[in-house]
Amino acid sequence: MQTPQRSRFVEMAGHVVIDSLHLPSLGTGLLLSVPVLLAVFFAAKVQSGTLTLVSLAALFPLTLYVLSRLALNGLGGDSMGGVFSQSGGSFEDLMPVFGRFISLTLVWALPAVIMFGFYEPKLRNSFAAPFRMGAPEPPPVILTLYLGTGFFVGFLLLTVSVAATKFTDAFSAGFWAALFQGRSGEVFLMLAASVGAPVAVFLLAAPWLSALGQKSQGFAAFLAGVLIIYLVGVHVSIHGKLCGFFASAVMSGILSEGVGPAPPAPASAPSPSGKEPEPTVTIPGRDEEIRQAWVLFAQRRSAAIERLEILIAQFAPDGRVLHALAMMHLQSQDSVRAAEAARGALPLCAAAGDFKQVKELYAAFSSQVQGWGYDHTQLAAIGDALAQAGDMMQAANAFAFSLHADATDARAFKGLLKCASHLAQKGEAPDRALKIYEFLIARAPGSPFVEHARTELTVLKKRLSKT
Questions:
Q1: The pLDDT value given to residue 373
Q2: What are the respective helix, strand and coil percentages of the chain, to the nearest 5?
Q3: What is the tens place of the pLDDT at every residue in 118-161?
Q4: What is the rounded distance in angstroms from the CA atom of residue 237 to the CA atom of residue 19?
Q5: Of the candidates 309, 363, 310, the residue with the CA atom closest to the CA atom of residue 341
Q6: Residue 200: what pLDDT?
Q7: Distances from the Cα of 30 to the Cαs of 35, 195, 234, 398, 407, in angstroms?
Q8: What's the whole-model pTM score?
Q9: Residue 335 falls within a domain, yes or no?
Q10: Which of 41, 165, 350, 463 has its CA 20 to 30 A from that of 210?
Q11: What sign does the dihedral 345-247-66-232 (CA atoms) show?
């Protein structure tokens, strides 16, 4: 029997649930309620069947769009932001995710549409049964079972859509296997969290609404409506963000192609003392400790720094704690201690999927990274984390360091190819893309992927010559 795997996703799921109970979820629920409210208005006031159907039909792409945005935010490590937050990426970054998600959803829906057409007479009898005498005819079992999987399948489709880097990945059996193999427990956790949290809030609120209804039925009905809209937003927020966090936790150890086993996790960097750190022990309330340390930092810098150093001494080096320590030393103009903390933090944050922290650390210390003694697997992991954070320039820099350390590093070579493709296609820095391809050809002429680099270089040169 295959042993279920556990990623950082399990730890982050609780944060996502708690953060999704905040006010932005009400905004998400209000946005999704707009088509329904319009449909009610058109049906009751305008009495237009066409406008009613159009309004309800708009709910389908709108829901997929909202879920795509929240999943992209989750992929970027944002557990707080709502549908209007762009922390996970710009509109241009969102559209490929939305395109993959809506395509996969339509593919899944196609058999249901065919079955509806095939069983249409039987379904008509089932729906008409309440309005005539006689026992209702149950709907076909196969259609019931297929539609029943829709809720579960939705999580899988969204996770694949946000994790994929190419459209074809979404339809690759190898990519699906790399994402979900051995992680059935974590997939179930997504379902349980997205349903359980709204249900728990409803059960807590129901007695109060019932008591209020005995005094003022109108006001209680209004609050119940607001509560339902809020709970829809909570469910959708948890659903979308958990899919993004799941993809982030798993993909931090998978090559961009998504096929084959994940590469080995990078080893920890030496601690500032020169000794190898002990295996990481989860620090209770770590994120809250860091938050309080920053509050204290605004008043007494030395006390805040000492607080974090005590945490590291009591437990083992932790990427987020070391990141905060490095930033505090940097703001205190202590560049030596800042570099020591950053040196330990970078590979730990990369391995844990803390992409925002990796991006911030690399931006501050990129000129020193090559001299910190990382091996090529650590550098490649840092490059992957920077790519996930959307900083392709710095990701290419880290991958180049890795390839300098080991010219046979396939992970770094593929990472540089991905960076060059991104920079060339989006028109951000085609000259930098040219230099990356030329570097790959010169540095690793024996790589099995070098012909692909040559082809891309030729295509890019021809394209640039026409502009």
A1: 87
A2: 75, 0, 25
A3: 766 665 655 544 444 455 566 677 777 877 787 788 889 998 89
A4: 9
A5: 309
A6: 93
A7: 10, 19, 11, 43, 53
A8: 0.53
A9: no
A10: 41
A11: negative
430 occurs within a structural domain = no
In a domain, 2, yes or no: no
Secondary structure, 3-state, 106-140: HHHHHHHHHHHHHCHHHHHHHHHHHHCCCCCCCCC
Q: State the chain's mean pLDDT as an integer.
A: 80
Residue 52 located in a structural domain: yes
Per the structure, the count of domains in the chain is 1
- Structural domain span for residue 152: 9-251
Judge contact between 279 and 309, C-beta under 8 A.
no
Task: Show the CA angle centred on residue 167, arms to residues 165 and 464, nearest 5°.
Answer: 75
Q: Which residue spans within 288-342 are E strands per DSSP?
A: none
Phi, psi at 323, each rounded to 5°: -60, -50
Structure tokens at 449: 């992927």
Distance CA 331, CA 135 (A): 75
Locate 394 and state its tokens. Answer: 């710095």
Q: How far apart are CA 199 and CA 235, in angstroms?
A: 9
pLDDT of residue 427: 59
Amino acid at the residue 426: K
pLDDT of residue 203: 93
- Position 99: which residue type? G
Sequence-distant (6+) residues with CB within 8 A of 114 are none
In this predicted model, what pLDDT tens digit does every residue of 211-252 receive, in sequence order? Answer: 888 888 888 889 988 999 999 989 999 998 888 888 876 654
The distance in angstroms from the start CA to the end CA of the chain is 58
